[in-house]
Amino acid sequence: MRLRTSLAVVGIATALVLTGCAGAGTDDNTSNEGTGQGTVALTIAKPDGAISTESNNPYLGDSSAAKYGYGKVIFESLALVNPTGDLGTTPWLAESVTWNDDYTQLTAKARSGVKWSDGEDFTAEDIAFSYKQVLDGKLNDTNALDLKAVTVDGDTVTLDFNSSKFTQQARVLHFQIVPEHIWADIADPNTDPLTGEGQVVGTGPYVMDSWTTESVTLTANPDYWGGELAVPELHYVSYGDNAALTTALATGEADWAQAFIPQIEDSYLSADPDNQFLVSPTAGAGTLFMNLQTKPFNDPALRQALAWTIDRQAYVDIAREGASEAVWSVTGLGSLLEDEIAPEYAGQDYSVDVDKAKAVLTDAGYTWKDEALIDPDGEAVTFSISVPAGWSDWNTEQALIAEELKEGLGIEVKVDQPDWGGWDAARQEGTFQAIIHWLEDTGNAYGLYTSTMDPKWIVDDKAAFNFGRYDDPAVTEALNTYANASSDEDRTAALEVIQTAFVEDVPAIPLGAHPLLGEFNTRNYVGWPSEDDQYSSADPTQPAIVQILTKLQPAE
Protein backbone atom coordinates (compact mmCIF):
# COMPACT_ATOMS: atom_id res chain seq x y z
CA MET A 1 0.00 0.00 0.00
CA ARG A 2 3.02 2.29 -0.18
CA LEU A 3 3.43 4.65 -3.09
CA ARG A 4 5.34 2.36 -5.37
CA THR A 5 8.88 3.39 -6.33
CA SER A 6 9.80 2.67 -9.60
CA LEU A 7 -0.10 34.92 -19.70
CA ALA A 8 -2.66 36.20 -20.80
CA VAL A 9 -4.82 36.74 -23.85
CA VAL A 10 -7.97 38.77 -23.15
CA GLY A 11 -11.29 36.99 -23.01
CA ILE A 12 -12.62 37.44 -26.50
CA ALA A 13 -14.63 34.89 -28.38
CA THR A 14 -11.77 33.80 -30.59
CA ALA A 15 -8.15 33.21 -29.67
CA LEU A 16 -5.45 35.65 -30.69
CA VAL A 17 -2.15 34.60 -32.21
CA LEU A 18 0.70 35.95 -30.14
CA THR A 19 2.93 38.27 -32.15
CA GLY A 20 6.36 36.73 -32.53
CA CYS A 21 5.30 33.55 -30.65
CA ALA A 22 3.23 31.60 -33.15
CA GLY A 23 2.06 28.13 -32.16
CA ALA A 24 3.25 24.81 -33.47
CA GLY A 25 0.77 24.81 -36.30
CA THR A 26 2.22 27.86 -38.07
CA ASP A 27 5.21 28.43 -40.34
CA ASP A 28 6.82 30.96 -37.99
CA ASN A 29 7.96 28.56 -35.29
CA THR A 30 11.06 29.32 -33.34
CA SER A 31 14.21 27.91 -34.85
CA ASN A 32 17.06 26.47 -32.84
CA GLU A 33 19.33 25.36 -35.62
CA GLY A 34 22.74 23.94 -34.81
CA THR A 35 21.92 22.84 -31.25
CA GLY A 36 20.68 19.35 -32.05
CA GLN A 37 17.29 20.27 -30.57
CA GLY A 38 13.96 20.48 -32.33
CA THR A 39 12.85 23.54 -34.21
CA VAL A 40 9.24 23.90 -33.05
CA ALA A 41 8.05 25.63 -29.88
CA LEU A 42 5.20 24.33 -27.75
CA THR A 43 2.45 26.70 -26.66
CA ILE A 44 0.96 25.74 -23.28
CA ALA A 45 -2.38 27.38 -22.56
CA LYS A 46 -4.88 27.96 -19.77
CA PRO A 47 -8.39 29.50 -19.79
CA ASP A 48 -7.90 31.68 -16.71
CA GLY A 49 -7.97 35.15 -18.22
CA ALA A 50 -5.44 37.94 -17.94
CA ILE A 51 -2.67 37.80 -15.37
CA SER A 52 -1.26 41.31 -15.18
CA THR A 53 1.41 41.03 -12.48
CA GLU A 54 4.69 39.17 -12.80
CA SER A 55 5.67 36.93 -9.90
CA ASN A 56 8.09 34.06 -10.40
CA ASN A 57 8.12 32.83 -6.81
CA PRO A 58 7.38 29.06 -6.87
CA TYR A 59 6.06 29.07 -3.30
CA LEU A 60 3.24 31.56 -3.88
CA GLY A 61 0.01 29.93 -4.99
CA ASP A 62 -1.24 33.12 -6.65
CA SER A 63 2.01 33.92 -8.47
CA SER A 64 2.05 34.01 -12.24
CA ALA A 65 4.57 31.14 -12.10
CA ALA A 66 1.96 29.03 -10.31
CA LYS A 67 -1.09 30.18 -12.29
CA TYR A 68 0.56 29.74 -15.66
CA GLY A 69 2.42 26.64 -14.44
CA TYR A 70 5.79 27.68 -15.82
CA GLY A 71 7.38 27.61 -12.36
CA LYS A 72 7.37 23.82 -12.49
CA VAL A 73 9.79 23.68 -15.44
CA ILE A 74 12.22 26.07 -13.74
CA PHE A 75 12.21 24.83 -10.13
CA GLU A 76 12.34 21.07 -9.61
CA SER A 77 11.69 18.74 -6.68
CA LEU A 78 13.36 15.72 -5.06
CA ALA A 79 11.06 13.19 -6.72
CA LEU A 80 7.92 12.88 -8.84
CA VAL A 81 4.96 10.96 -7.43
CA ASN A 82 2.70 9.67 -10.18
CA PRO A 83 -0.96 10.39 -9.25
CA THR A 84 -2.14 7.87 -11.87
CA GLY A 85 -0.83 4.73 -13.56
CA ASP A 86 1.28 2.74 -11.11
CA LEU A 87 1.23 5.53 -8.45
CA GLY A 88 5.01 5.17 -8.49
CA THR A 89 7.74 7.48 -7.21
CA THR A 90 10.54 8.54 -9.57
CA PRO A 91 13.63 10.14 -7.96
CA TRP A 92 14.41 13.46 -9.67
CA LEU A 93 16.73 16.02 -8.09
CA ALA A 94 17.50 13.26 -5.62
CA GLU A 95 19.22 10.14 -6.92
CA SER A 96 17.30 8.21 -4.27
CA VAL A 97 14.63 8.86 -1.64
CA THR A 98 14.10 6.48 1.27
CA TRP A 99 11.49 6.60 4.03
CA ASN A 100 11.82 4.95 7.43
CA ASP A 101 9.16 2.45 8.54
CA ASP A 102 6.71 4.94 10.02
CA TYR A 103 7.37 7.68 7.43
CA THR A 104 8.65 10.18 9.99
CA GLN A 105 12.05 10.42 8.30
CA LEU A 106 13.12 10.88 4.69
CA THR A 107 16.66 10.36 3.45
CA ALA A 108 17.53 11.88 0.07
CA LYS A 109 20.80 11.67 -1.83
CA ALA A 110 21.43 14.77 -3.94
CA ARG A 111 21.89 14.03 -7.63
CA SER A 112 25.46 14.62 -8.79
CA GLY A 113 26.39 16.62 -11.86
CA VAL A 114 23.48 19.06 -11.56
CA LYS A 115 24.04 22.79 -12.06
CA TRP A 116 21.83 25.75 -11.40
CA SER A 117 20.93 27.66 -14.54
CA ASP A 118 23.44 30.39 -13.61
CA GLY A 119 26.24 27.82 -13.68
CA GLU A 120 26.63 27.28 -9.93
CA ASP A 121 26.81 23.68 -8.64
CA PHE A 122 23.71 22.17 -7.10
CA THR A 123 24.45 20.47 -3.76
CA ALA A 124 22.77 18.80 -0.81
CA GLU A 125 23.09 22.14 1.01
CA ASP A 126 20.58 23.62 -1.45
CA ILE A 127 18.07 20.91 -0.57
CA ALA A 128 18.62 21.46 3.14
CA PHE A 129 18.34 25.24 2.77
CA SER A 130 15.05 24.95 0.89
CA TYR A 131 13.39 22.88 3.60
CA LYS A 132 15.03 24.85 6.43
CA GLN A 133 13.17 27.94 5.23
CA VAL A 134 10.05 26.17 6.51
CA LEU A 135 11.69 24.68 9.59
CA ASP A 136 13.04 28.09 10.67
CA GLY A 137 9.71 29.82 10.06
CA LYS A 138 11.03 32.04 7.29
CA LEU A 139 8.67 30.41 4.76
CA ASN A 140 5.06 29.61 5.65
CA ASP A 141 4.36 25.87 5.96
CA THR A 142 1.57 25.87 3.38
CA ASN A 143 2.23 22.20 2.57
CA ALA A 144 1.88 21.08 6.21
CA LEU A 145 5.37 19.56 6.17
CA ASP A 146 5.55 19.76 9.98
CA LEU A 147 9.34 19.48 9.97
CA LYS A 148 11.30 18.58 13.09
CA ALA A 149 14.89 18.70 11.83
CA VAL A 150 16.97 18.97 8.66
CA THR A 151 20.52 17.60 8.58
CA VAL A 152 23.21 17.21 5.92
CA ASP A 153 25.96 14.61 5.71
CA GLY A 154 27.98 14.97 2.52
CA ASP A 155 25.58 14.53 -0.39
CA THR A 156 22.81 13.14 1.83
CA VAL A 157 19.99 15.15 3.40
CA THR A 158 17.81 13.78 6.20
CA LEU A 159 14.40 15.29 6.90
CA ASP A 160 12.75 14.46 10.22
CA PHE A 161 9.05 15.15 10.76
CA ASN A 162 6.89 15.51 13.85
CA SER A 163 4.30 13.17 12.37
CA SER A 164 4.03 10.42 9.79
CA LYS A 165 4.02 11.57 6.17
CA PHE A 166 2.71 8.29 4.72
CA THR A 167 -0.42 10.00 3.43
CA GLN A 168 1.47 13.17 2.43
CA GLN A 169 4.45 11.77 0.54
CA ALA A 170 3.73 13.78 -2.58
CA ARG A 171 3.57 17.05 -0.63
CA VAL A 172 7.02 16.40 0.83
CA LEU A 173 8.64 15.15 -2.36
CA HIS A 174 7.13 17.81 -4.64
CA PHE A 175 8.40 20.71 -2.51
CA GLN A 176 10.39 22.85 -4.94
CA ILE A 177 14.12 23.25 -4.37
CA VAL A 178 15.72 26.70 -4.72
CA PRO A 179 19.37 27.86 -4.78
CA GLU A 180 20.78 28.94 -1.43
CA HIS A 181 23.17 31.41 -3.07
CA ILE A 182 20.17 33.37 -4.41
CA TRP A 183 17.50 32.82 -1.79
CA ALA A 184 19.66 33.47 1.26
CA ASP A 185 19.39 37.16 0.33
CA ILE A 186 15.60 37.15 -0.05
CA ALA A 187 14.19 38.87 3.02
CA ASP A 188 10.65 37.45 2.83
CA PRO A 189 10.08 34.44 0.55
CA ASN A 190 6.35 34.61 1.36
CA THR A 191 5.95 37.87 -0.54
CA ASP A 192 8.98 38.44 -2.79
CA PRO A 193 7.84 38.28 -6.46
CA LEU A 194 11.31 37.12 -7.57
CA THR A 195 11.53 39.57 -10.44
CA GLY A 196 14.98 40.94 -9.79
CA GLU A 197 17.87 40.54 -12.20
CA GLY A 198 19.29 37.03 -12.02
CA GLN A 199 16.82 35.76 -9.41
CA VAL A 200 14.89 33.24 -11.52
CA VAL A 201 17.50 30.50 -11.20
CA GLY A 202 16.52 26.84 -11.16
CA THR A 203 17.73 23.36 -12.07
CA GLY A 204 14.84 22.72 -14.45
CA PRO A 205 14.82 21.97 -18.17
CA TYR A 206 13.82 25.53 -19.14
CA VAL A 207 14.94 29.03 -18.22
CA MET A 208 13.11 32.34 -18.34
CA ASP A 209 13.49 34.27 -21.59
CA SER A 210 10.77 36.94 -21.49
CA TRP A 211 7.65 37.86 -19.51
CA THR A 212 4.76 39.98 -20.77
CA THR A 213 1.06 40.13 -20.00
CA GLU A 214 0.49 38.36 -23.32
CA SER A 215 2.91 35.49 -22.94
CA VAL A 216 5.78 34.03 -21.00
CA THR A 217 8.56 32.51 -23.07
CA LEU A 218 11.04 29.97 -21.73
CA THR A 219 13.98 28.48 -23.62
CA ALA A 220 15.63 25.10 -23.21
CA ASN A 221 18.36 24.95 -20.58
CA PRO A 222 21.47 23.98 -22.59
CA ASP A 223 23.15 22.50 -19.50
CA TYR A 224 20.17 20.56 -18.19
CA TRP A 225 21.23 17.55 -16.14
CA GLY A 226 18.47 15.44 -17.68
CA GLY A 227 19.97 15.60 -21.16
CA GLU A 228 19.20 17.29 -24.44
CA LEU A 229 15.67 18.61 -24.89
CA ALA A 230 13.76 18.19 -28.13
CA VAL A 231 11.54 21.23 -27.58
CA PRO A 232 13.54 24.46 -27.86
CA GLU A 233 10.94 26.87 -26.46
CA LEU A 234 7.82 26.93 -24.35
CA HIS A 235 5.23 29.70 -24.70
CA TYR A 236 2.77 30.05 -21.81
CA VAL A 237 -0.45 31.91 -22.62
CA SER A 238 -3.86 32.29 -21.02
CA TYR A 239 -7.20 32.69 -22.82
CA GLY A 240 -10.30 34.37 -21.51
CA ASP A 241 -12.44 31.25 -21.22
CA ASN A 242 -12.76 27.61 -22.23
CA ALA A 243 -14.37 28.50 -25.57
CA ALA A 244 -11.38 30.60 -26.64
CA LEU A 245 -8.98 27.94 -25.37
CA THR A 246 -10.82 25.22 -27.27
CA THR A 247 -10.61 27.23 -30.49
CA ALA A 248 -6.89 27.71 -30.00
CA LEU A 249 -6.33 24.00 -29.36
CA ALA A 250 -8.47 22.91 -32.30
CA THR A 251 -6.66 25.19 -34.75
CA GLY A 252 -3.18 24.36 -33.51
CA GLU A 253 -2.53 27.83 -32.16
CA ALA A 254 -2.13 26.25 -28.74
CA ASP A 255 -0.52 22.84 -28.35
CA TRP A 256 -1.03 21.70 -24.79
CA ALA A 257 -3.60 22.36 -22.09
CA GLN A 258 -5.55 20.95 -19.20
CA ALA A 259 -9.27 21.66 -19.52
CA PHE A 260 -12.68 19.99 -19.46
CA ILE A 261 -14.00 20.57 -22.97
CA PRO A 262 -17.68 19.81 -23.56
CA GLN A 263 -18.39 17.86 -26.75
CA ILE A 264 -14.68 17.33 -27.12
CA GLU A 265 -14.98 14.99 -30.11
CA ASP A 266 -16.72 17.59 -32.26
CA SER A 267 -14.99 20.69 -30.92
CA TYR A 268 -11.40 19.44 -30.71
CA LEU A 269 -10.55 15.85 -31.64
CA SER A 270 -12.24 15.81 -35.05
CA ALA A 271 -10.46 19.01 -36.12
CA ASP A 272 -7.13 17.23 -36.60
CA PRO A 273 -6.10 13.56 -36.29
CA ASP A 274 -3.03 14.76 -34.36
CA ASN A 275 -5.19 16.29 -31.62
CA GLN A 276 -5.13 14.00 -28.59
CA PHE A 277 -6.98 13.83 -25.27
CA LEU A 278 -5.82 11.76 -22.29
CA VAL A 279 -7.93 11.05 -19.23
CA SER A 280 -5.85 9.90 -16.27
CA PRO A 281 -7.84 8.51 -13.32
CA THR A 282 -6.53 9.38 -9.87
CA ALA A 283 -7.22 8.00 -6.41
CA GLY A 284 -9.70 10.82 -5.84
CA ALA A 285 -13.31 10.77 -7.02
CA GLY A 286 -16.26 13.01 -7.74
CA THR A 287 -18.42 12.10 -4.75
CA LEU A 288 -21.99 12.59 -3.53
CA PHE A 289 -21.79 13.90 0.04
CA MET A 290 -24.98 13.66 2.12
CA ASN A 291 -25.78 15.55 5.31
CA LEU A 292 -25.89 12.68 7.78
CA GLN A 293 -27.26 14.85 10.57
CA THR A 294 -30.70 15.53 9.11
CA LYS A 295 -33.49 13.74 7.27
CA PRO A 296 -33.54 11.98 4.95
CA PHE A 297 -29.84 11.08 5.11
CA ASN A 298 -29.69 10.25 8.81
CA ASP A 299 -30.96 6.78 7.85
CA PRO A 300 -28.26 4.44 6.45
CA ALA A 301 -30.96 2.36 4.72
CA LEU A 302 -31.84 5.29 2.49
CA ARG A 303 -28.17 5.92 1.71
CA GLN A 304 -27.73 2.25 0.85
CA ALA A 305 -30.74 2.38 -1.47
CA LEU A 306 -29.32 5.41 -3.25
CA ALA A 307 -26.04 3.54 -3.74
CA TRP A 308 -27.97 0.78 -5.55
CA THR A 309 -29.85 3.26 -7.76
CA ILE A 310 -27.42 5.95 -8.93
CA ASP A 311 -25.85 5.09 -12.29
CA ARG A 312 -22.11 5.75 -12.08
CA GLN A 313 -21.59 4.86 -15.75
CA ALA A 314 -24.08 7.56 -16.74
CA TYR A 315 -21.99 9.98 -14.68
CA VAL A 316 -18.94 9.00 -16.73
CA ASP A 317 -20.61 8.81 -20.15
CA ILE A 318 -23.01 11.75 -19.94
CA ALA A 319 -21.95 14.18 -17.20
CA ARG A 320 -18.21 13.73 -17.75
CA GLU A 321 -18.45 12.87 -21.48
CA GLY A 322 -16.10 9.93 -20.95
CA ALA A 323 -13.56 11.90 -18.92
CA SER A 324 -13.68 9.71 -15.84
CA GLU A 325 -13.89 6.09 -14.72
CA ALA A 326 -16.89 4.73 -12.85
CA VAL A 327 -16.45 3.70 -9.19
CA TRP A 328 -18.65 0.71 -8.40
CA SER A 329 -16.87 -1.03 -5.51
CA VAL A 330 -18.86 -1.08 -2.28
CA THR A 331 -15.68 0.17 -0.61
CA GLY A 332 -15.76 3.35 -2.69
CA LEU A 333 -12.28 2.72 -4.07
CA GLY A 334 -11.51 3.00 -7.77
CA SER A 335 -9.40 0.72 -9.93
CA LEU A 336 -6.09 2.39 -9.02
CA LEU A 337 -6.55 1.25 -5.43
CA GLU A 338 -7.83 -2.27 -5.98
CA ASP A 339 -4.94 -3.70 -3.95
CA GLU A 340 -6.26 -1.86 -0.88
CA ILE A 341 -9.70 -3.47 -1.00
CA ALA A 342 -10.09 -5.90 1.89
CA PRO A 343 -10.44 -9.57 0.77
CA GLU A 344 -14.03 -9.82 2.04
CA TYR A 345 -15.06 -6.97 -0.27
CA ALA A 346 -13.04 -7.95 -3.34
CA GLY A 347 -15.39 -8.15 -6.30
CA GLN A 348 -18.34 -6.77 -4.34
CA ASP A 349 -19.71 -3.99 -6.51
CA TYR A 350 -22.81 -1.89 -6.65
CA SER A 351 -24.89 -1.89 -9.81
CA VAL A 352 -28.06 -0.18 -10.89
CA ASP A 353 -30.50 -2.52 -9.14
CA VAL A 354 -33.72 -0.72 -8.30
CA ASP A 355 -35.38 -3.92 -7.05
CA LYS A 356 -32.60 -4.39 -4.50
CA ALA A 357 -32.82 -0.75 -3.49
CA LYS A 358 -36.57 -1.07 -2.94
CA ALA A 359 -36.07 -4.22 -0.90
CA VAL A 360 -33.61 -2.40 1.37
CA LEU A 361 -36.13 0.40 1.85
CA THR A 362 -39.06 -1.94 2.44
CA ASP A 363 -37.10 -3.81 5.11
CA ALA A 364 -36.42 -0.48 6.81
CA GLY A 365 -40.10 0.47 6.94
CA TYR A 366 -40.46 2.64 3.83
CA THR A 367 -43.58 2.49 1.69
CA TRP A 368 -44.88 4.10 -1.50
CA LYS A 369 -47.95 6.25 -2.03
CA ASP A 370 -48.91 7.38 -5.51
CA GLU A 371 -45.42 6.26 -6.59
CA ALA A 372 -43.78 8.63 -4.06
CA LEU A 373 -41.42 7.18 -1.46
CA ILE A 374 -42.75 7.56 2.09
CA ASP A 375 -40.40 7.24 5.08
CA PRO A 376 -41.24 5.34 8.30
CA ASP A 377 -42.56 8.61 9.82
CA GLY A 378 -45.13 8.90 7.06
CA GLU A 379 -43.40 11.76 5.26
CA ALA A 380 -42.54 11.91 1.55
CA VAL A 381 -38.81 11.60 0.93
CA THR A 382 -37.40 14.65 -0.82
CA PHE A 383 -34.13 16.55 -0.77
CA SER A 384 -32.04 19.05 -2.69
CA ILE A 385 -28.66 18.45 -4.31
CA SER A 386 -26.39 21.46 -4.65
CA VAL A 387 -23.58 22.29 -7.10
CA PRO A 388 -22.42 25.80 -8.09
CA ALA A 389 -23.95 27.18 -11.27
CA GLY A 390 -21.66 26.83 -14.26
CA TRP A 391 -19.99 23.59 -13.18
CA SER A 392 -21.42 22.00 -16.28
CA ASP A 393 -20.40 18.39 -15.70
CA TRP A 394 -21.70 18.23 -12.15
CA ASN A 395 -24.76 20.31 -13.08
CA THR A 396 -25.55 17.57 -15.58
CA GLU A 397 -25.02 14.93 -12.90
CA GLN A 398 -27.48 16.74 -10.64
CA ALA A 399 -30.14 16.34 -13.31
CA LEU A 400 -29.22 12.68 -13.88
CA ILE A 401 -29.47 11.83 -10.19
CA ALA A 402 -32.80 13.64 -9.90
CA GLU A 403 -34.17 11.66 -12.84
CA GLU A 404 -32.78 8.32 -11.63
CA LEU A 405 -34.19 8.69 -8.11
CA LYS A 406 -37.56 10.01 -9.29
CA GLU A 407 -38.06 7.17 -11.76
CA GLY A 408 -36.49 4.43 -9.69
CA LEU A 409 -37.51 5.18 -6.11
CA GLY A 410 -40.10 7.96 -6.25
CA ILE A 411 -37.85 10.53 -4.56
CA GLU A 412 -38.36 14.17 -5.48
CA VAL A 413 -34.93 15.78 -5.88
CA LYS A 414 -34.57 19.55 -6.18
CA VAL A 415 -31.63 20.72 -8.30
CA ASP A 416 -29.96 23.65 -6.55
CA GLN A 417 -27.32 25.73 -8.38
CA PRO A 418 -26.21 28.62 -6.16
CA ASP A 419 -23.22 30.87 -6.70
CA TRP A 420 -19.87 29.69 -5.31
CA GLY A 421 -20.15 31.75 -2.11
CA GLY A 422 -23.50 30.32 -1.10
CA TRP A 423 -22.43 26.76 -1.91
CA ASP A 424 -19.15 27.15 -0.05
CA ALA A 425 -20.85 28.48 3.08
CA ALA A 426 -23.40 25.66 3.09
CA ARG A 427 -20.82 22.90 2.72
CA GLN A 428 -18.72 24.32 5.54
CA GLU A 429 -21.59 25.00 7.91
CA GLY A 430 -23.53 21.80 7.20
CA THR A 431 -26.67 23.56 6.01
CA PHE A 432 -26.90 21.59 2.74
CA GLN A 433 -28.75 18.32 2.11
CA ALA A 434 -26.54 16.82 -0.60
CA ILE A 435 -23.61 18.12 -2.63
CA ILE A 436 -21.16 16.77 -5.21
CA HIS A 437 -17.56 17.39 -4.23
CA TRP A 438 -14.03 16.13 -4.73
CA LEU A 439 -11.88 14.15 -2.27
CA GLU A 440 -8.52 14.75 -0.67
CA ASP A 441 -6.21 12.71 -2.92
CA THR A 442 -3.42 11.11 -0.90
CA GLY A 443 -2.51 8.47 -3.50
CA ASN A 444 -3.93 5.72 -1.31
CA ALA A 445 -7.19 4.66 0.36
CA TYR A 446 -6.78 7.18 3.17
CA GLY A 447 -7.87 10.02 0.91
CA LEU A 448 -11.40 8.70 0.43
CA TYR A 449 -11.93 7.66 4.01
CA THR A 450 -10.51 10.73 5.74
CA SER A 451 -12.52 12.94 3.36
CA THR A 452 -15.79 11.22 4.20
CA MET A 453 -15.39 9.89 7.77
CA ASP A 454 -12.76 11.86 9.69
CA PRO A 455 -13.86 14.38 12.36
CA LYS A 456 -10.47 16.12 12.18
CA TRP A 457 -11.81 18.18 9.29
CA ILE A 458 -14.46 19.84 11.51
CA VAL A 459 -12.89 22.88 13.19
CA ASP A 460 -14.98 25.53 14.95
CA ASP A 461 -18.05 23.73 13.57
CA LYS A 462 -16.91 24.33 9.99
CA ALA A 463 -15.99 21.45 7.69
CA ALA A 464 -13.09 21.36 5.23
CA PHE A 465 -14.02 17.74 4.35
CA ASN A 466 -16.30 15.14 5.98
CA PHE A 467 -19.14 17.47 5.11
CA GLY A 468 -21.71 14.93 6.28
CA ARG A 469 -20.11 15.05 9.75
CA TYR A 470 -19.66 11.31 10.16
CA ASP A 471 -18.28 10.43 13.60
CA ASP A 472 -17.43 6.94 14.85
CA PRO A 473 -14.62 6.73 17.46
CA ALA A 474 -13.52 3.29 16.25
CA VAL A 475 -13.19 4.59 12.68
CA THR A 476 -11.38 7.71 13.85
CA GLU A 477 -8.87 5.56 15.72
CA ALA A 478 -8.41 3.33 12.67
CA LEU A 479 -7.84 6.35 10.43
CA ASN A 480 -5.14 7.62 12.78
CA THR A 481 -3.56 4.16 12.85
CA TYR A 482 -3.55 3.95 9.06
CA ALA A 483 -1.89 7.35 8.74
CA ASN A 484 0.77 6.68 11.41
CA ALA A 485 1.42 2.93 11.23
CA SER A 486 4.98 1.62 10.99
CA SER A 487 4.01 -1.51 9.06
CA ASP A 488 1.75 -2.51 6.21
CA GLU A 489 0.21 -5.14 8.50
CA ASP A 490 -1.00 -2.52 10.97
CA ARG A 491 -2.26 -0.37 8.14
CA THR A 492 -4.16 -3.30 6.61
CA ALA A 493 -5.81 -4.11 9.94
CA ALA A 494 -6.91 -0.51 10.35
CA LEU A 495 -8.22 -0.43 6.80
CA GLU A 496 -10.49 -3.41 7.49
CA VAL A 497 -12.20 -1.47 10.29
CA ILE A 498 -12.58 1.60 8.09
CA GLN A 499 -13.91 -0.27 5.07
CA THR A 500 -16.42 -2.27 7.08
CA ALA A 501 -17.88 0.97 8.43
CA PHE A 502 -17.91 2.57 4.98
CA VAL A 503 -19.71 -0.40 3.42
CA GLU A 504 -22.28 -0.66 6.21
CA ASP A 505 -22.89 3.05 6.82
CA VAL A 506 -22.46 4.48 3.28
CA PRO A 507 -21.39 7.92 4.52
CA ALA A 508 -20.85 9.09 0.92
CA ILE A 509 -21.20 7.72 -2.62
CA PRO A 510 -18.18 8.05 -4.96
CA LEU A 511 -19.36 8.41 -8.55
CA GLY A 512 -16.30 8.39 -10.77
CA ALA A 513 -12.55 8.83 -10.54
CA HIS A 514 -11.50 12.46 -10.44
CA PRO A 515 -9.21 12.59 -13.46
CA LEU A 516 -6.29 14.65 -14.57
CA LEU A 517 -6.92 15.80 -18.15
CA GLY A 518 -4.55 16.69 -20.92
CA GLU A 519 -5.09 17.95 -24.46
CA PHE A 520 -2.05 17.91 -26.75
CA ASN A 521 -1.11 17.29 -30.37
CA THR A 522 1.37 14.87 -31.91
CA ARG A 523 2.05 16.73 -35.16
CA ASN A 524 5.53 17.78 -34.05
CA TYR A 525 6.40 15.68 -31.01
CA VAL A 526 5.80 12.15 -29.77
CA GLY A 527 6.52 10.46 -26.45
CA TRP A 528 3.48 11.78 -24.61
CA PRO A 529 1.87 9.66 -21.87
CA SER A 530 -0.94 7.49 -23.18
CA GLU A 531 -3.60 5.08 -21.97
CA ASP A 532 -1.10 2.27 -22.46
CA ASP A 533 1.77 4.14 -20.82
CA GLN A 534 0.58 6.42 -18.03
CA TYR A 535 4.04 7.23 -16.73
CA SER A 536 2.36 10.50 -15.76
CA SER A 537 -0.82 12.34 -16.58
CA ALA A 538 -0.79 14.71 -19.56
CA ASP A 539 -1.75 17.68 -17.38
CA PRO A 540 0.90 20.40 -17.95
CA THR A 541 0.15 22.01 -14.57
CA GLN A 542 1.45 18.97 -12.67
CA PRO A 543 5.05 18.52 -11.42
CA ALA A 544 5.63 15.68 -13.91
CA ILE A 545 5.64 18.14 -16.81
CA VAL A 546 9.44 18.02 -16.51
CA GLN A 547 9.34 14.25 -17.03
CA ILE A 548 7.17 14.59 -20.12
CA LEU A 549 9.43 17.24 -21.62
CA THR A 550 12.46 14.96 -21.25
CA LYS A 551 10.61 12.16 -23.05
CA LEU A 552 9.30 14.16 -26.01
CA GLN A 553 11.03 13.52 -29.34
CA PRO A 554 10.47 15.02 -32.81
CA ALA A 555 7.73 13.28 -34.79
CA GLU A 556 8.85 11.42 -37.91
Automatic annotation (TrEMBL):
This protein's UniProt keywords: Signal, Transport
* Range of residues in the leader sequence: 1-24
Instruction: Give the InterPro entries listed for this entry.
Output: Peptide/Ni-bd, SBP_5, SBP_5_dom
* Residue ranges of domain Solute-binding protein family in the record: 90-451
Q: What domain of life is recorded for the organism?
A: Bacteria
- Keyword Coiled coil assigned to the entry: answer is no
**What Gene3D superfamilies does the database record attribute to this sequence?**
Dipeptide-binding Protein, Domain 1 (3.90.76.10), Dipeptide-binding Protein, Domain 3 (3.10.105.10), Periplasmic binding protein-like II (3.40.190.10)
Q: Enumerate the PANTHER family for this protein.
A: OLIGOPEPTIDE-BINDING PROTEIN APPA, PERIPLASMIC BINDING COMPONENT OF ABC TRANSPORTER
Family stated for the protein in its record: Belongs to the bacterial solute-binding protein 5 family.
Q: What is this protein called?
A: Peptide ABC transporter substrate-binding protein
Give the species. Microbacterium terricola
